[in-house]
Amino acid sequence: MSTEDDINPPCWIEDPMLGQHSPYSLVVYVVARFNAVYRPLSVLTIEETDVDQVQAAEIIPLCQRLSAMLADPSNRVALASELSLAADFYSDEQSTSGPSIHDLPKTGGLEYFRQLDGGDRVYRDFPDFPFISTCLMLAGDLSSDCPMRLRPLGTRFRDRDATSYSMVVFDVSDLEQSRYGIVAFKVQHMVLVESLEMWRRWTDWGQPLGGERELRVGEPQSRTPLSVREFATKFGVKIPDDASALDGVPLVEPDAFRLIWPSESSETENGRVSQGPPQSGSSIDSSDARLARRIEGILQTDGFTLLLLNGVRKLRAFQQSLRRVLLEKPDCLNSPEGSGLLGLAFEAETHLNLVQYDGLSGEVIRAALDRDELKQIQSVSICIDRITETPRHLADALFPSGMKHDFYILQSPSRNSDDRAIEFMQELCRVPDRLSPSNKIFISGIYSSALRRQPWVPASGPGLPTSAFPVQYIFHRTQYNPRGHRWTTQSGYIGDGMLSPLASATGLLAWLGKLASRVLLWAVGAPDLEDPLRIQVSPIPAEEFKLQGVQTRDTVRRPLCSGTWCVVVSTEKYRDTARHEANSRVRGCEPCEAQYIGFALVRLLVDVVAEDSPITVAAEDVQVCGLAEFLGQTSPAAVDAALVERRLAKTEEKISHWIGQGRLGEGLRWLRQLEVEEAVEVLNMGLKEHFGR
């Protein structure tokens, strides 16, 4: 601490009332390496306001969640497909000076809200890579209560931002082993002492220093990334018990910072980031290039047939060379031998990644999948913006008799609409038998629409097929106080999260374990019941995401069709009278109330529409069951009832350890299945709220 001998007014000193701390805002980047340069794939800012700040302790769980998402095999195909699109996207950028530069927004006080147009929080731009951006948004939103927004890919972190922002960077160049790193500098509050009299008023009388103030970085700004343990040690943060999963994740290379944290010399005068030194030579081996030219010559032979490739099929680089030729000569795929060429190019693969191919037709893809060479294919990814067919024609061609593979429908990063992808999904729903709970359908436009908080399921009509996505609604009532049966009721549409039966079950367990108002928890259920720590990323339910904080009257009054499954939840309170009286006698503060949960899954056997009067259902109008029975009726896979019970018991244990939980009364359980009468009561309360009656 400064003494009077150190003071020579006017001078800046460290504010004696405030110590050093981490920055109160955060920027998170996901990057990947293309042609020796690390490029951003998604950028998220989490910003302080006048009432909330990003705490250092929140950065560790964010890193844990994002690392788990990027590493989980259930997300691998979606990530790999977007990386393929990114390779093309940044290859096209080579002809320009790079992405436009954007500065990080100012932070502090009401700055976040001043940036919004008329208070509208919708992310208006189309996210370049929606799945990666969804991972980023989910990791951020489930770790911090501060407002957050996706930012343009050209958003940069500069030295001057270090007083306001910490930075987290994830590198997904190698999906088998992602990397991460944290950059955070200690921030010091400085105050201008204008006179010795001002200083003496502080030292002698404790009058706060009233001079000008500013924030400064209190240490050299090294570009060395920190691990979560190094970060925790630096800022005195307790490391969670489960943070050990990050111990095996390597740190990013310092070169990963070059574009996102540029030095002054790397920025050009026209407001764009320099792309770095030119790459010398081709990354393609010369022998591979010769083979590609040889294959191209064979394909141009008059009367070409697949037999003409027999002489080169056994060569080591044949498949990669053929794929390269087909990328450069897409017309070959529309020839009579197009499906056969795809079969040879991807023979014995398990994933058919076609997102980089132009001019494909649904018929060629379907014919290729029927070939013996591709009998091991489990999943297919295409970019719908590269296909000239209408969404209806494409759906009819790909699925003439139902879905037999997992399908990933992506879009161009430079698109200006999600309409084609959404229309394709609506075409699939038009013939419900096309969709199967046994196979996954991934539509990047749905992830994009959710990030923009734009609902995509029509308000009228049958909605999504319940055979593939059974759970459509959640109805939740909460007891107002433990001394009476006064309730608050919430209804929510989660059908647009496209939850399979298993994803519905694991999403429900994730939601019950926290019972938070955040609908995003439904998007981060585990891919199976074996390991609840895994995270499979599903679309965020767009309708509920948009309505967070919006009055109920703005919700869509969608009818509920027969066959629809609903989750009904009753949060009830117990008051420990003895402990309450003991607290009163000794002025104690021991928790004397406990929340406990009842739930059930309810299948409607009748249609429920707004015109019904009154809007109520009877016990004979529904089927009420527990989680294992629900899975037994909806999931194509066998159900391990004992495993389901273990997962429920683990969720019950989480509920018992919620902060502020008191003792539970005799005969009560933290988590139980509702009886039929209770479930119907909760459902009717929810229907009344849903239809605004």
- Any low-confidence stretches, pLDDT <50, length ≥5? 117-123, 274-282
The protein's oligomeric status is single chain
Largest sheet: 6 strands, mixed
The total count of strands amounts to: 20
Characterize the overall form. Answer: flat
Overall pLDDT metric: 88
Structural class of the helix and strand makeup? alpha/beta
Structural Rg: 29 Å
Strand content: 15-25%
Helix content: 25-40%
Measured distance between first and last alpha carbons: 64 Å
Number of domains: 3
Question: Given the structure, what is the number of helices?
Answer: 19
Biased composition (Polar residues): 271-286
Region (Disordered): 265-287
Task: Characterize the structure shown.
The chain is α/β, with parallel strands linked by helices. Helix content is 30%, strand content 18%. The strands form 5 sheets. Strands 15, 16, 17, 18, 19 and 20 form a 6-stranded mixed beta sheet that branches. A 5-stranded mixed beta sheet has the order 5-3-2-7-8. Helix 9 (338-345) crosses helix 10 (362-369). The chain is flat and about 100 Å long. Residues 271-286 have a biased composition (Polar residues). Residues 265-287 are annotated as: Disordered.
What features would you highlight for this structure?
alpha/beta; six-stranded mixed β-sheet; 693 residues; 19 helices; five-stranded mixed β-sheet; 30% helix; 3 domains; 20 strands
Compile the SSE list and pairings:
Blueprint: E1 11-14, E2 25-34, E3 37-46, H1 56-71, H2 76-93, E4 102-103, H3 111-114, H4 130-141, E5 148-151, E6 155-156, E7 165-171, E8 179-183, E9 187-193, H5 196-205, E10 213-217, H6 228-235, H7 286-299, H8 318-328, H9 338-345, E11 351-353, H10 362-369, E12 379-383, H11 391-398, E13 406-410, H12 419-430, E14 441-443, H13 444-451, E15 471-481, E16 484-493, H14 501-514, H15 542-546, E17 565-575, H16 577-586, E18 593-604, E19 622-625, H17 627-634, H18 641-656, E20 671-673, H19 676-690
Parallel strand pairs: 2-7, 4-6, 11-12, 12-13, 13-14, 15-17, 18-20
Antiparallel strand pairs: 1-9, 2-3, 3-5, 7-8, 9-10, 15-16, 17-18, 18-19
Helix pairs in contact: 1-4, 4-13, 7-8, 8-9, 9-10, 10-11, 11-12, 14-18
